[in-house]
Design goal:
CATH superfamily: Calycin beta-barrel core domain
CATH class: Mainly Beta
Structural class: mainly beta
Helix content: under 10%
Strand content: over 45%
Order of helices and strands: HEEEEEEEEEEE
Number of helices: 1
Largest sheet: 10 strands, antiparallel, barrel
CATH topology: Lipocalin
Mean pLDDT: 88
């Protein structure tokens, strides 16, 4: 799938669900859902602002977002986290296609000693971002489903 088609798919997203699993069962699973606001920064960039509420185990609110950048990406794209605002993004991953609908990161992102790997699936009804986080501080899987 080319960058223009991927951007169009991202621009049409309205809501998301998130599921966090802790394989060692120290914290069980967490579920949340919310709304996504889409902002196009340029012809090659989309920002998804996520705002939601955990439904299990607590009812705390959360927010965050990702900038998806297709500039200078012949075959893939990069994802930045915008926890510090859209003007101060944190680079997370450069993704390349495994097939036209599945993209995986080239290299792991490291936060201190923890390693983050991501894959993104562009499906017919949704876009799925699956994170695997491993290290001494974190051992979890994070799945975000955008619709």
């Amino acid at each position: 799938m080319n960058a223009l088609l991927l951007l169009k798919r991202l621009a049409g997203l309205l809501q998301f669900t998130v599921h966090v699993e802790f394989p060692d069962d120290l914290g069980g699973s967490h579920y949340g859902e919310g709304l996504t606001t889409v902002r196009s920064e340029s012809a090659a960039e989309v920002i998804l602002f996520d705002c939601g509420r955990w439904s299990r185990p607590t009812h705390l609110r959360f927010s965050g977002g990702y900038r998806w950048n297709f500039a200078n990406a012949v075959d893939g794209f990069k994802i930045d986290h915008i926890r510090h605002g859209a003007d101060n993004p944190v680079f997370l991953a450069a993704l390349v296609p495994v097939n036209p609908f599945l993209y995986k990161n080239l290299e792991s992102y490291h936060c201190e000693a923890d390693s983050y790997d991501v894959e993104v699936r562009f499906m017919e009804e949704e876009v799925v971002m699956q994170w695997s986080i491993r290290g001494p501080r974190k051992n979890q899987n994070l799945c975000i489903r955008y619709r």
